[in-house]
Amino acid sequence: MSVHIEAKPGEIAESILLPGDPLRAKYIAETFLEDVVCYNQVRGMLGYTGTYKGNRVSVQGTGMGMPSASIYIHELINDYGAKNLIRIGTCGAIQKDVKIRDVIIAQAAATDSAIIRNDFPGYDFPQIGDFGLIKKAYEAGTDKGLNIRVGNVLSSDRFYSKKNMLTELAAHGVLAVEMEAAGLYYLAAQFGVSALTLLTVSDHILTGEQTSSEERQTTFNDMIEVALATVAK
Ligand SMILES: O=P(O)(O)O[C@H]1O[C@H](CO)[C@@H](O)[C@H]1O
Ligand SMILES: O=c1cc[nH]c(=O)[nH]1
């Protein structure tokens, strides 16, 4: 048991999927996993362990933003021995050629958060995904026939951010904005584990197109299947 997770030792798998939304964790466990056990209900931040094609895998909600996600990621690594952590989130696209429901691999994550900057005064410590997981996820996506995008994203402390900074970042090739990847990559670097972020475009910042809250909870199956194939490879 850790401060925010009530699982007993051994109840959480080394490979874990991390949606922000705990109801997405429930949907994944009920839809894709076999022999499922719910190991966490503390604060409603649901966590489950089951098997996918014979591979043991967990799925844990992390909440929104780096302060919340970092708590779960820290405890999963340090109290439960998680080794491969794959965030599966939603994002807002900031490029014209990135479409709603596209799947993105966050090769790297820029951030406006002070979480990392405060630890490295005077340095810009880069937040990068694990190459091995990126390669497996890219192959799993292309095997499924997806036009999977790979590139830089912005992990912002703000959902409602100022548009001019997003325009500037888009001009530098950033694909989309979300709120946790940089925090995940930073903790993975700090504790020597592997991490990846997969995102589905739920909103288009340039066109205003959006998916419904129900879709955000449940229907991003392409991304979920790519994540599960990545941990099963
Ligand atoms: O869908 P999730 O994984 O929560 O990710 C995105 O959605 C939330 C904002 O609506 C933020 O957590 C952002 O990163
Ligand atoms: O952080 C996020 C997540 C989804 N959509 C956005 O516009 N921003």
From TrEMBL:
Top-rank taxon: Bacteria
GO cellular component: cytosol
Record-linked InterPro entries: DeoD-type, Nucleoside_phosphorylase_CS, Nucleoside_phosphorylase_d, Nucleoside_phosphorylase_sf
Active site: D203 (proton donor)
UniProt keyword Iron-sulfur present: no
Function: Catalyzes the reversible phosphorolytic breakdown of the N-glycosidic bond in the beta-(deoxy)ribonucleoside molecules, with the formation of the corresponding free purine bases and pentose-1-phosphate.
Protein name (database record): Purine nucleoside phosphorylase DeoD-type
Binding site for a purine D-ribonucleoside: H4, E178, M179, E180, S202, D203
Site location (Important for catalytic activity): R216
Assembly, per entry: Homohexamer; trimer of homodimers.
Family as reported in the entry's similarity comment: Belongs to the PNP/UDP phosphorylase family.
Residues in Nucleoside phosphorylase domain copies: 16-228
Transmembrane segments annotated in the record for this chain: none
PROSITE patterns the record matches: PNP_UDP_1
Protein source organism: Pseudoneobacillus rhizosphaerae
Lineage of origin: Bacteria, Bacillati, Bacillota, Bacilli, Bacillales
HAMAP family: Pur_nucleosid_phosp
